[in-house]
């Protein structure tokens, strides 16, 4: 059971990753990103998730450098974007991301989307980076069972993470079971469905019962389901509030009620229909 902000999950290669972190999707680069990341680190966050596509790796890197927390205590994730996939292209993209972040190594490097005809070569490049010690763990985002079934037989290094859209309206139960069988840790992006779940009556009832916000209840639900979560916020009070979820637990009944809200409804693109070839 994850019981504090400092608790970690052991990945399939033995690397330990914080179960809770800060996402910076669509956060403006520069002072907004720097302030958000710095605030999170000051308030105990140790995992920061960015991506080449977000355009804010420089800001994340600056906040890390300005932090008083040693680099080895932080867990930094970024991702290779679709138009940078392929073997040589991925190696170059990694160098560009590392340069923008101003880091010597990454903790986690992910394939952002399963680009048809590209992700196997991309994975081979990521295995090379892993084997060279440039990154501590490698994984994927938005991979469904068919993508993993296609990739896994050719892996020499199994993905440690599969980061997918995950919230009470999209519980991904079959994918979760698949990843659990394969030893691949599930991680949630958009855990709060970009605010679209805040008006859900059942979530409001559970939140009121525990004296918490809907956001806090959903993030607690993530962790109790064994899913790493990385909520995004640029506001200091929200960053603190999101992490204030370790002084209560959801009952089995609470969990079942929240699980029942699933309707396979996405706020992002479907990996099965992603418009890239």
Features:
NADP; Aldo/keto reductase; 277 residues; TIM Barrel; eight-stranded parallel β-sheet; globular; AKR5G; AKR
Could you walk me through the main structural features you see in this protein, from its secondary elements to its overall organization?
With 277 residues, the chain is an alpha/beta fold. The protein has a single domain, classed as TIM Barrel, CATH 3.20.20. Helices cover 38% and strands 15% of the residues. It contains ten helices and ten strands. It has an eight-stranded parallel sheet with strand order 3-4-5-6-7-8-9-10. Strands 1-2 form a two-stranded antiparallel ribbon. Helix 2 packs across helix 3. The chain is globular, with a radius of gyration of 18 Å. The chain starts with 7 loop residues before the first strand and ends in an 18-residue tail after the last helix. The model has no long low-confidence stretch (mean pLDDT 96).
Write the layout of secondary structure elements.
Elements: E1 8-10, E2 16-18, E3 22-23, H1 31-42, E4 47-49, H2 57-66, E5 75-80, H3 87-101, E6 106-111, H4 119-131, E7 135-141, H5 145-151, E8 161-165, H6 173-182, E9 185-189, H7 201-210, H8 214-224, E10 228-229, H9 236-243, H10 252-259
Parallel strand pairs: 3-4, 4-5, 5-6, 6-7, 7-8, 8-9, 9-10
Antiparallel strand pairs: 1-2
Helix pairs in contact: 1-2, 2-3, 3-4, 7-8
